[in-house]
Amino acid sequence: MGETPERKKIVIDTDPGIDDALAIFVALNSPEIEVVGLTTIYGNVYTSLATRNALHLLEVAGRNDIPVAEGSHVTITNGTKLRIADFVHGADGLGNQNFPSPQGAKIDQSATDFLIHLANLYPGEITILALGPLTNLAMAIQQDPEFPRKIRQIVLLGGAFSVNGNVNPAAEANIFGDPDAADIVFTSGSDILAVGINVTHQVVLTEDHLNQLAQSKGKFAQYACKILGVYFAYHHDAYSMRGVYLHDPTALLAAVDPSLLTYTEGVVRVQTGGITRGLTLFDNCKKRYGEMNEWFDKPKVKVAITVDAPAIVKLVMDRLMG
């Protein structure tokens, strides 16, 4: 008998969100990983509703043992005019189903304190899957300068590398939500894997898939069918497509099995002002520039450039129906 490999410890920083819900369910049905906590952030909904939704999703899954820590209600620069994507996910963030209030409660620690606590408890073992704006992570880095070296990896859903954004031509939603925080995270020296919409827009759940989920007896599949209507309608309006992008589940599966994507390495900086606020710019580091500048000596990160979309969709389907 071979040794079973150690399950990766993952914290999911999330703003649930319909595709967040799918990613959380797939994570809980992924034997390769152990979800050690959820931290919440604004994005698809405001932070307090993200916390409620996170608790609700864990209750649906029968996993009230997993702690939920509430994250920041403002950006890293104390911005309160947040961009909330309720027009994509419904006013409740979960397809306007108006689910009952969860029985569980968040823990007393803030998301930032909880992340720092886990990094100290399991040095070198924690992977953070960041599915929303990066405020909580940037605050952890500011509070504990050693934090980037204490965690194993940050897999983040964010950026639009060499393609148009989805908030405007320049910016992808999670980075646009807090560009200053994103720049702190990208330049922190952590082992970072960025999964942008340049790859997630290749991973599509179709109406056929939805019909398969509807015929499945799995509780996650049944729940997914309930919430996906609003998301399908949004994609039809915004992109004239009959399907939905699997952004968050793709980032999750990149954390579970990095070989499902290919990557390039270089420096990423985020534009923090002007009409390109939220732009992620990738430097392939092939040229040595003559003068010291904002790009000089910054740590490299990995950026996803291709994806095995059929394999990802199959895994999402199997784990929702399983």
Instruction: Count helical runs.
Output: 13
Rg over CA atoms: 18 Å
Largest sheet: 9 strands, mixed
CATH superfamily: Ribonucleoside hydrolase-like
In what range is the share of β-strand residues? 15-25%
State the domain count.
1
Classify the secondary structure makeup into a structural class. alpha/beta
Spatial arrangement of strands, main beta sheet: 3-2-1-4-5-6-11-9-10
Question: Can you identify the CATH class?
Answer: Alpha Beta
Q: Which parts are unreliable, with pLDDT below 50 for 5 consecutive residues or more?
A: none
Oligomer: single chain
Through-space gap between termini? 25 Å
Q: What shape does the CA trace take?
A: globular
Average predicted local confidence, pLDDT? 95
Q: Under the CATH scheme, which architecture would be assigned?
A: Alpha-Beta Complex
Helix share, percent: 25-40%
At the third CATH level, what is the topology name?
Inosine-uridine Nucleoside N-ribohydrolase, Chain A
> What is the tally of beta strands?
11
SSE topology string: EHEHEHHEHHEHHEHEHHEHEEEH
Task: Give an overview of the whole structure.
- Involved in pyrimidine breakdown.
- It comes from Spirodela intermedia (Intermediate duckweed).
- One of its GO terms (biological process) is ribonucleoside catabolic process.
- Pfam families: IU_nuc_hydro (PF01156).
- One of its GO terms (molecular function) is inosine nucleosidase activity.
- By secondary structure, the protein is α/β, with parallel strands linked by helices.
- It has a single domain, classed as Inosine-uridine Nucleoside N-ribohydrolase, Chain A, CATH 3.90.245.10.
- The chain is 38% helix and 18% strand.
- It has a 9-stranded mixed beta sheet with strand order 3-2-1-4-5-6-11-9-10, sandwiched between helices. A two-stranded antiparallel sheet has the order 7-8.
- Strand 2 (33-40), helix 2 and strand 3 form a beta-alpha-beta unit.
- Helix 1 runs antiparallel to helix 11 (219-239) and helix 1 runs parallel beside helix 12 (247-256).
- The model has no long low-confidence stretch (mean pLDDT 95).
